[in-house]
């Protein structure tokens, strides 16, 4: 259960009075989600999702809200925030920063086919292209600096073999010329549970709370590591080719991106191995984190070190 | 058939390259619509509608495109335009001004129940409330001045009885104090064929090309005259009450609006009687107008003159 803050019907009905979305018909808490309290809200005019922000600082919220508004403005299926009658996205409800967003249709998919991966690759490229004209900037909060810092914090908590792998890998990654790669706004967490499928189409991409500016190739690697990996951690060739070709159709790869693709896959694997180790050994108080197995991403990292991934040739 | 301008697959695929909506999968002309050429467009990322504007002047289009963007921004189900990579809504395709909008789901309804009319009343109020913060202005193109001018043009073409009714009604309406009524952006054409139903909810409100600033009460009267009228032209009490109560729940009626409600119904009836007479007797060349029976709105006008409509009392 992930509703951390209760909302009363009276308070919500009154709060909706600041919007032009009609009267409250019904609402219910949403079980999924670990960072915020979310509610499905139905009014006389439509279906929305109410989010009470539990952990993101209020000052950081405009970046995310305006980003999804910008992407929706460019035709992408993201949870666009609804402006109130004063043209504001962010309000306060039950003592928390609160926003209303459009409810998207669709459901998660656990076993994607290459055809699904084609859609995901095209969608990620669409996000990257539309993000180029987004005016606000913040650094990707799980970038190279974060990875180095978290590694220091978790090293005392892991076994000798893991510590050695971590140190060696960080040192190797520090020598790669990631800085010269094309940058932009990245989603940074485009996992299967952040994409809603409406039949064969993507009905929604959600959860932009790790977004920020970083290399586009890193975002692609995060996405491929989740959508195109087999149980042993190695890449599924068909799904990976489908996703990468669809992405490359929209935004042509640079030569430097081709060279650094294996390194990007390793950096992306390391990022999630580190955060999972941290969630396991150093949980933050007051945050309800769903602890996921760190070894899944250790396996992926090792498979990427051993593997020979490459971006598809030009058509 | 209402596709006036042809689009080739190659041209459309190239044109979509200016957007971040993925690759063209398929497209087809839409039969409905009398003013523009419309196409359903499916890309790898979603479903859209392409409009080539055939009759609206290019200079007037930003008012409509930004209006629907503004209303969507406030959470209302309208066809929001998609911005291209340069953040522009309006492009050129096949030599016509062209825009891509989000495709809405739902279908028209010919026989609304009071429950449907409740939704329509709430939606119209939502449009009026959200419209209050819209920054651009243009006069409603079918306002009192247009009605007086068109009456002059059509008078020579109608019979003596109709001419007498027209003259008397215009003279009576000119004496009503419409100017002191609350004003704002009105849709001005919220007929049944401009509302798409997605089950019990309104999935979309379309066709804003008569929108402009005028009295909100006039818009309400246009809507009631279409949604709540029986075959003999008189008001259906249950549907009318449902629509007006739902609207009044969102925006309380002023005393002046209560006094002028019968007059607003007559002005709204006259507006469509006039435009239908004009379409019948003075069709504009180059425009494919679906000629509708003027007598339907003559009957409604006469029924409103004879009737005793009133806005619902406060709850």
From TrEMBL, chains A, B:
A single GO molecular-function term is: homoserine kinase activity
Which biological process terms from the Gene Ontology are attached to this UniProt entry? threonine biosynthetic process
What are the alphabetically sorted keywords of the record?
Amino-acid biosynthesis, ATP-binding, Kinase, Nucleotide-binding, Threonine biosynthesis, Transferase
Query: What is this enzyme's EC?
Result: 2.7.1.39
Aminoglycoside phosphotransferase domain residues are 27-251
Q: In which pathway does it act?
A: Amino-acid biosynthesis; L-threonine biosynthesis; L-threonine from L-aspartate: step 4/5
Q: Which reaction does it catalyse?
A: L-homoserine + ATP = O-phospho-L-homoserine + ADP + H(+)
Q: Gene3D superfamilies given for it? A: 3.90.1200.10, Phosphorylase Kinase, domain 1
Q: What class of enzyme is it?
A: transferase
Report whether Transferase shows up as a keyword of the record.
yes
**Which residue stretches, if any, does this entry annotate as coiled coil?**
none
Q: Which family does it belong to?
A: Belongs to the pseudomonas-type ThrB family.
Q: Name the HAMAP family on file.
A: Homoser_kinase_2
Protein name in the entry: Homoserine kinase
């Amino acid at each position: 259960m992930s509703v951390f803050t209760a909302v009363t019907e009276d308070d919500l009905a009154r709060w909706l009075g600041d919007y032009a979305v009609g009267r409250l018909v019904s609402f219910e808490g949403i079980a999924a989600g670990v960072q915020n309290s979310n509610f499905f809200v139905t009014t006389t005019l439509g279906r929305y999702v109410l989010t009470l922000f539990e952990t993101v600082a209020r000052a950081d919220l405009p970046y995310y809200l305006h980003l999804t508004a910008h992407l929706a403005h460019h035709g992408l299926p993201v949870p666009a925030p609804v402006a109130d009658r004063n043209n504001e996205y962010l309000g306060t409800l039950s003592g928390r920063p609160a926003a209303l967003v459009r409810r998207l249709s669709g459901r998660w998919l656990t076993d994607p086919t290459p055809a699904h991966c084609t859609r995901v690759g095209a969608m990620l490229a669409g996000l990257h292209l539309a993000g180029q004209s987004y005016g606000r900037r913040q650094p990707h909060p799980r970038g190279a600096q974060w990875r180095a810092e978290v590694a220091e914090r978790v090293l005392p908590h892991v076994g000798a073999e893991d510590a050695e792998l971590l140190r060696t890998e960080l040192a190797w990654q520090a020598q790669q010329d990631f800085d010269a790669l094309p940058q932009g706004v990245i989603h940074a967490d485009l996992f299967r549970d952040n994409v809603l499928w409406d039949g064969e189409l993507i009905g929604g991409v959600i959860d932009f709370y790790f977004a920020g500016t970083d290399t586009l190739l890193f975002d692609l690697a995060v996405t491929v590591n989740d959508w195109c990996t087999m149980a042993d951690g190695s890449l599924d060739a068909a799904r990976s080719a489908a996703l990468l070709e669809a992405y490359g159709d929209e935004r042509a790869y640079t030569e430097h991106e081709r060279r650094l693709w294996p390194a990007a896959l390793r950096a992306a694997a390391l990022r999630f191995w580190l955060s999972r180790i941290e969630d396991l050994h150093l949980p933050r108080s007051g945050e309800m984190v769903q602890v996921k197995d760190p070894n899944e991403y250790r396996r992926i990292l090792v498979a990427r070190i051993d593997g020979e991934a490459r971006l598809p040739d030009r058509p």
